[in-house]
Protein 1
Amino acid sequence: MKTIFTPLCISALILGATGLAQAHVSLETAQAAAGSGYKAVLKIPHGCEGAATTQVSIKIPEGFIAAQPQVKAGWEIETVKSDYQHSYKVHGKDVKNGVTEIIWKGGKLPGDFYDEFAVVGKLASFDKDTTLSFPTVQTCENDKTENWTDIATEGQNPHDLKNPAPQLLVSASAAKAADHSAHAGHANGHDNKAAEAVTLGDLTLSKAHSVATIPNARVAGGYIVITNNGKEDDNLIGGTSDAAGKVEIHEMSMKDNVMKMRKLSEPLAIPAGQTVTLAPSGFHIMFMDLAKPFKEGETVNVELEFEKAGKVNLPFHVNPAKGSADKANDHSQH
Ligand SMILES: [Cu+2]
């Protein structure tokens, strides 16, 4: 089944130049929690040997459910729907099919410019850490193509692939990760560290971490996975930290092709039975007015407050500025 969808509103394309002429196509957020909502932001860093990109198609992997492309000014969107290999429960309903391929066409991305193509959906509740591949084909003027479709076989290093498909590491659901705390280090990547999972009432808080800042930074992001194992919704009201003048909850979103960050005006909902992931491309904690820059290897003490579960003190480990999750997918340094 094919559906043609043409965005009516054409707003100015925001284009950023890139110096990474050799960079591979990759996902902006290369790690997410099983069972959570996920926004796949496909980064297209260059054309085909200089030719402008006129079409981008992406295959949606099994386990990325209810995929919906984000409207993109200047591009038509075509979706292919087919049956999933498995059946999934979404909001209590069985979902057996959905979008398995998305094609953006009719646009023109000059060869030396950069752009992003986004898809939102939900990750299945994988019970072990799983790598999902999003094979992508870039079609350019003069019938040139770039195929980002190589998938590493077992035991093969993805870095050895010439044209790797963009990858997402899905970490097993937080509740399960807590049961297997010995594996927590693995689940989280190579040398990055995050706090052990903490239980607060019905909530499980895991993977609390921040990222090292540049020397004069005034703000830093905080990231965490929050699972509500209870039967009642809860809300993240806010937090405090001795490392920052203020702790706010922010949302990063795309509006008319512009990346916007805003402070949430209401508490962040943690619905019953669901996992909310605070990550760089979505909801996140923002440490404002830093007492001093965050350095790799340090721990930042944070008190988070939930409406029902109450307050909890959590260490946020400061990871290197370029995380291992990024390294797995970002080949720009080759
Ligand atoms: Cu922010």
Note: Residues 1-22, 175-191, 323-334 have pLDDT under 50 and may be disordered.
Protein 2
Amino acid sequence: MDCKKKEFNLDSNITYLNCAYMSPLMSSVEEAGIIGIKKKRQPNIISGEDFFSESDKLREEFSKLINSEQRNQCVVIPSVSYGMANVANNLKLEKGDNIIVVGEQFPSNVYPWMEVAQKAEAEIKTISPPDTKTGRGELWNKQILDSIDERTKLVACGHIHWADGTIFDLRSIRQKTYEVGAWLAVDATQSLGALPFDVQQLKPDALIAAGYKSLMGPYSIGMAYYGSALSDGNPIEQNWINRFESENFSNLINYNEHYQPGALRYEVGEHSNFILVPMMLEAIKKLNEWKPENIQQYLIDLVEKPISILRKSGFIIEETKYRASNLFGIRLAEHHQMNELKAKLLESNIIVSYRGDAIRVSPNIYNDSNDLNKLVQALTSN
Ligand SMILES: Cc1ncc(COP(=O)(O)O)c(C=O)c1O
């Protein structure tokens, strides 16, 4: 796969290595949003069917991306916190049970569990990263697996860690959760699109992702997949469009106690969003066209050599097996000074993030080896 820079409109004076903060928009995604805005100039051209058809196409495209058998297991959400709130609303917890999260996890995948755990007098077990610079990812994964016990009701984690790209071994975690009857909720905001994800293989109870990072969509829309464990559950809101036969506008006030099939009861109200839905749809279409496995390989090839050069200069970067290539943390050796490195990156117009003690670098398909060489140059120059 070749670099897709041409599809985007990045400022050529900057080196953007910060998809984990927010992806840029492709021109075609931008265009889809503009068409959506213009549609409301003439509301008469927005038909009743339009309330359903575009979001259905989006669900279909998303289900292709994650290999879901049924598109109605996939729903439009406004944020990760919303998607996780639906899980929290249906989690059966008793006093003494526990929920497992990883250390320094993104708050939208922690606050919902804090609330339900407090109410039920259950425990949140936070598995902090081991305090070691070598074999950190492997040991961390082992500690997560070891922490799952017969009182565990949920493991909530990312596919990769949002701050340093540590990969979590979801297959082994899923296996262990099955053994103890716990749910698995995955926040794939920082990986979906850039890493393949197959829900038929992994069978998570929930897979949640914000749309504006590796999914390359706009802000304020995301996607969720809910497995069969949540099929008959209670959504956090009761909106008209998720009710059975809501397509029949003239019959809406004959209130219907049944929901639309699959997981559609969990979809956010006004999910027909005529601007964001076509944008998200266009972005996921592109990802499906390019295929996550090709994007993943492109990024592996892109970062391999720069990472080995950085390691030779003393920087500490997780070994390949336990680290993503679309997002990785660079930790410093004793002779490095974070303030100096920040100043050098700023001076070279290189945009990254700083999370915890790591420089977070998150390239994607619009980056080429020139971009990575600039990063290496800035970090290793005297
Ligand atoms: C891993 C992860 N999850 C979720 C989010 C966003 O959460 P929300 O959609 O609830 O604002 C972010 C934003 O940085 C993130 O990094």
Note: The CA atoms of residues 39 and 45 lie 7 Å apart.
